[in-house]
Structure formats: C-alpha cells, structure tokens
Design goal:
Blueprint lengths: L1 E6 L2 H11 L6 E6 L9 E2 L7 H10 L4 E4 L2 H5 L2 H7 L4 E2 L7 H4 L1 H10 L7 E4 L2 H9 L5 E5 L8 E4 L2 H12 L9 E5 L4 E9 L4 E9 L2 E3 L3 E4 L4 E4 L6 H21 L6 E10 L2 E8 L6 H5 L7 H9 L14 E9 L24 E5 L2 E4 L2 E4 L3 E9 L2 H15 L4 E2 L6 H8 L1
Parallel strand pairs: 1-2, 1-4, 2-3, 4-5
Antiparallel strand pairs: 6-9, 7-8, 7-9, 10-11, 10-15, 11-14, 12-13, 14-17, 15-16, 17-21, 17-22, 18-21, 19-20
Helix pairs in contact: 7-8
Bound molecules: adenosine monophosphate and glycine.
Adenosine monophosphate (AMP) binds next to β7 and β16.
C-alpha cells in the first residue's frame, strides 16, 4: 500500500517511522515532511492548505491511504474534501474538528452534557468581558476561540491584563477568532489522554505529559511543547474511568447526534485535581511531542489500526503496548517561541549513531546537499525508552551533548515531577 502523510513536524516523523515498520506499507510520501522523514519516505514540498494541489499529488502518486497529522487542514475540511474525491483518508471531518477549532463549540458541548471543565463565559465584545470581571476571581484564563498555533491562551493575574488581551483578540490578533472565552483558572496536574475513535467505538491510545512552558520549572511563555513522557502515572485506573464516563462518552454521543461521528485520534487535555479530571481542551489529532513518546511504545501494526478505524472495525482490533517508559526532549532554535534564526547547520547530526532504545525525530529541519539545517523553532526531538525516567533522561542528555548544536537550547528538567516521585 502507498501511504501519504500530511505534515512536517516531529509527530509526522514518528508516524512515518511507525508506518514504515508495517508489512502493508510499500511506499510512503510525506507532504512535505522534513529531513528526518527522508529516511523512510519521499518528501513532496506542497502547501498543505492547497487542497486541490494536494489532491492532484495524491492521485498522481497513486496513494491508497492518507493520514493527516496537524490540526489546520483538518479544521479547514481536508478530510471532507478528500473523501468527496474518493480518497481513503484518516482523520475527523470539518464538523467534528470544531472540538479543537472552536473553543466555544467545545464549551457548549460541555455545558449541554455537564462535562467537568472550567467555568466559562463566551464573549463577543468588551462589554461582556467587563461584566464577567465584576463577579470573578483572579487569575482568569483568556482564550481566543479559534486556532492560534498554541499562542491563543493567556493566564491573567490582573483584571487590566484581561481587558488588554481581550481587546487584542477582538481587534483581530488571531484571524481565526472573533470571539473569546474567559475561564476560571484550574489548579492541579495536567495530563493528556489519547484515544483512537471510529463511528462505533474507541480504543485507548496512550497517556503522556507535555511541558508547554519554555523554561525550566515551568516558567516563561507557552510553546508548542518542550518535551514529554509516557505513560503519565497521574492517570490511574479510577481517573481513567471518570475520563471515559464523564468526558469522552458524552462528547462522542453529542457528535453522533449531529450525524458527524468522530473518526480519528482524539487528544483529551486534562487537569487532574483531587482525583477528578477536568477537560481543558480537545485536540483532534495526536499531540506533538506526545506522539513521539506514545508511538514508540505501540506494539500493534499502526497501518492495520488506522485501516480498521476507517472501516469502523476498531472493536475487533486489539492494541498492544509495551510497559517500557519513554521520554523526548525538544531541541529548539535559540529565541523560540519568540524570534529565532533559521538555516543553521546542525553539523554533528549525521555522525550520531543511536542505540536500539534511542531515536532522534526531526521537526524543523531540511536537508540540502547531504547536510541538515534548521528550518523552524522546534528542531529535533531526542527520544529514548527504558525502565526508569531518570535513566532515560540521562541517555537523552548524552545524545544532546553529542549533537552539541550551538544555535539550540532545551529544557534540562523534562519529567521533573515524575522523576521526583520515582525516586521517593
Ligand atoms: P489550551 O490551548 O486550552 O490547552 O491551553 C494551553 C495551556 O494553558 C494548557 O495546557 C494549560 O497549561 C493552560 N490552561 C488552559 N486553560 C486553563 C485553565 N482553565 N486553568 C489553568 N490552566 C489552563
Ligand atoms: N503538545 C501540545 C499539542 O500537541 O497540542
């Protein structure tokens, strides 16, 4: 089977590697991929929001199955478009993708089905914001309604800041958002729970914890994710049951009722407080860098799982996982998530030989004349597996030191909470 993968991040490199391991795979084409995917696939450089061009390339390359990695093409309806053109594709349709594409859409479902989430108010103008502020406690979380590449959420500790951030959103800071959500601040421990979903059922697809802040001890601005580990021990069996019964089931039922059942990966972003899960956000795809720690633990053929999901036969699919743990640390360009330089040579990357339990997933990289250069903010995901998170992190640190990229930086404390607990 010829398989097309849409996207160019660490997540897509991880999907590409897993797909390559499947017996059903003949050829992989990445649209557009990165320097890492070239190990397994052919890269075709194309704007992934130019659906017509993408369709022509999918047809001319005789692709049998398309897997969509990132949210933007999903929210903009790529799956609907490809299906209409008789292409087999994995991912949710445009309607169901609103779970991530519109925070107001997601919150309205929570309200209707009593799904535990932060108390909120959807606002369309400044007057509504001022009114909400009169009766609420700080901090307040301000969220742009639409997609904002991880930059749409601000935790405000002063009421003035709420007004300032809200005004920026109403003035069009994020083109995707005319509305915003004001939200109560939730205390607790954050964790992510993943599922693969078809029209009839859903299957567990791992847990992970990301580190969104740019600096150690969770300080500084939010990023796309600086590192992750899997599994997330905070999600025990009792919490998992609550996640399924109180959050996942009502959501899937709500979508089914509109004749738009969810089909694809579902990322449930949670805050766990006193043994109870609260929904922070839904993403309608695998996480990045969470995918880079979850897929290496998968022991079932990913192509088979995805095909069964498309055919709504997931109930017959047994998905196996290794008990081993995994971690990834993201090596970023200096300056990220603010301004950073691109096209910086990563001199030593070709000299690194990783062992069986290590892997370097590329993200913002490109290959030119056999050399590898940076092309984005998050550049490499240094990943390792094993029995203990601390040992795994030490292995990762050694690899990063060998890469010794002077234009990069990384967080040295990924997994600090879980490592503290492991040692107690
Ligand atoms: P979101 O895009 O909704 O996931 O928000 C990005 C990040 O902001 C989350 O991963 C949390 O760390 C934080 N966050 C969002 N909403 C809340 C909330 N209601 N309370 C506390 N932290 C939040
Ligand atoms: N790592 C966060 C995300 O994928 O949304």
């Amino acid at each position: 089977m010829n398989i097309g993968i849409i996207g160019s991040g660490g997540r897509e490199h991880a999907i590409c590697k897993k797909i390559f391991e499947s017996k059903s795979t003949e050829k992989i084409i990445c649209f557009p991929g990165n320097a890492g995917t070239l190990e397994f696939a052919t890269n075709i450089n194309v704007d992934i929001l130019n659906f017509k061009k993408l369709l022509n390339l999918i047809k001319s390359n005789k692709i049998d199955l398309v897997i969509v990695g990132p949210e933007e093409p999903l929210v903009k309806g790529l799956v609907d478009f490809l299906k209409k053109n008789k292409i087999k594709v994995f991912g949710p349709n445009r309607y169901a993708s609103q779970l991530e594409g519109s925070k107001a859409f997601m919150k309205k479902i929570c309200e209707r089905y009593s799904i535990p989430t932060a108390k909120f108010k959807i606002c369309s103008n400044k007057h509504q914001v001022i009114k909400f502020l009169k009766n609420s406690k700080l901090p307040i979380v301000v969220k742009a309604d639409g997609l904002a590449a991880g930059k749409g959420v601000t935790i405000c500790r002063k009421k003035d800041q709420v007004i300032k951030v809200s005004t920026q959103i109403f003035n069009g800071k994020f083109k995707s958002s005319k509305k915003l959500i004001l939200e109560e601040f939730l205390e607790g421990e954050e964790a992510s729970y993943f599922l693969i979903v078809d029209n009839n059922t859903y299957k567990f697809f791992g847990t992970a914890q990301d580190h969104k802040r740019v600096r150690e001890k969770d300080k500084g601005p939010n990023t796309g994710g600086m590192g992750a580990y899997s599994p997330a021990p905070v999600i025990n069996k009792s919490i998992e049951k609550k996640i399924i019964n109180r959050i996942v089931r009502p959501t899937l039922k709500a979508l089914k009722k509109t004749n738009n059942p969810f089909n694809g990966f579902l990322y449930v972003g949670l805050m766990i407080k006193n043994g109870n899960p609260f929904l922070i956000e839904y993403n309608i795809r695998m996480g990045d860098p969470e995918c880079q720690v979850i897929l290496p633990r998968l022991r079932t053929d990913l192509v088979k799982i995805i095909e069964n999901s498309i055919l709504n036969k997931l109930s017959k699919t047994k998905i196996k996982w290794t008990k081993d743990k995994s971690m990834t640390v993201v090596l970023c360009s200096k300056g990220y998530p603010g301004n950073y330089k691109k096209n910086k040579l990563i001199k030593n990357i070709n000299k690194i030989n990783v062992s069986k339990n290590e892997y370097i997933y590329h993200a913002g990289t490109k290959a030119e004349n056999g050399k590898i250069y940076s092309s984005g903010g998050r550049v490499l995901n240094i990943t390792a597996f094993g029995k203990k998170f601390l040992t795994i992190r030490n292995k990762i640190e050694k690899l990063i030191k060998r890469i010794n990229w002077k234009h990069g930086f990384y967080r040295k404390d990924i997994g600090w909470k879980v490592i503290n607990n492991e040692n107690n």
